[in-house]
Design a protein that fits this description.
By secondary structure, the protein is of the alpha+beta class. It has two domains: 53 residues; 111 residues, Immunoglobulin-like, CATH 2.60.40.150. Helices cover 28% and strands 38% of the residues. Strand 5 and strand 6 form a beta hairpin. The longest helix is centred in the C-terminal third of the chain and has 30 residues. The chain is globular and about 55 Å long. The two termini are 26 Å apart.
């Protein structure tokens, strides 16, 4: 292993470890990502696992916070917009719901198909107590409740992972062979 570290360098070894992991995850969006615009921030949650399915009613919760403590969802002209492929496919007013000490909105939406969607929340204060804001979240719908067909994304990420491993194995083999040919890899003479 010391030889491999010297030939390929520590950064290459890190790449060997990370590329297959990146390939297998497929760059999936993370759940519960905090978005912020000015003093207003919000976290989107799609119960139960933040992985909505197409063809079923899905609850979209956004929990809001405000650094200046001036934000109140009931005083907000807030709208939820959902886009797919750059086209607005749904919009409706945010429906406030108080959950503990956090102001939370609760809206329902039925994603029409597997794919990537952008959920945007735009807000304007009715009373001028806080600045206008906009928050955007990317959500991937990877299953369809109306079908048991496998999701193409899983097949693609497996192929990417396998290709990544093959490419990295080739780099390792050619890197060691190149080091051997350049004279960096020599057998030490036997000492008696």
């Amino acid at each position: 292993m010391r030889m491999l570290n010297r030939v390929l360098g520590k950064s290459m070894l890190g790449l060997v470890v990370m590329l297959p992991i990146i390939g297998f995850t497929g760059g999936a969006a993370s759940a519960h990502v905090l978005k912020q615009n000015g003093n207003i921030s919000g976290v989107l949650h799609v119960p139960p696992t933040d992985e909505p399915a197409a063809g079923v009613d899905t609850t979209l919760y956004v929990a809001f916070a405000d650094k200046s403590h001036a934000f109140n969802l009931t005083d907000c002209e807030c709208e939820l917009h959902i886009e797919q492929n750059g086209k607005n496919i749904h919009e409706e007013p945010i429906k406030p719901q108080l959950a503990g000490s956090t102001l939370t909105s609760q809206n329902m939406f039925n994603f029409p198909a597997i794919g990537s969607y952008v959920i945007e929340v735009h807000g304007h204060a009715k009373n001028g107590q806080f600045s206008d804001f906009g928050l955007a979240y990317t959500v991937r719908v990877t299953t369809d409740s109306r079908s048991s067909a496998p999701v193409a994304r899983n097949q693609n990420t497996t192929a990417i992972g396998i290709i990544s491993i093959g490419v990295l194995a080739g780099i390792g083999v050619f890197g060691v062979a190149g080091a051997r040919d350049s004279g960096r890899y020599r057998k030490s003479p036997n000492k008696v």
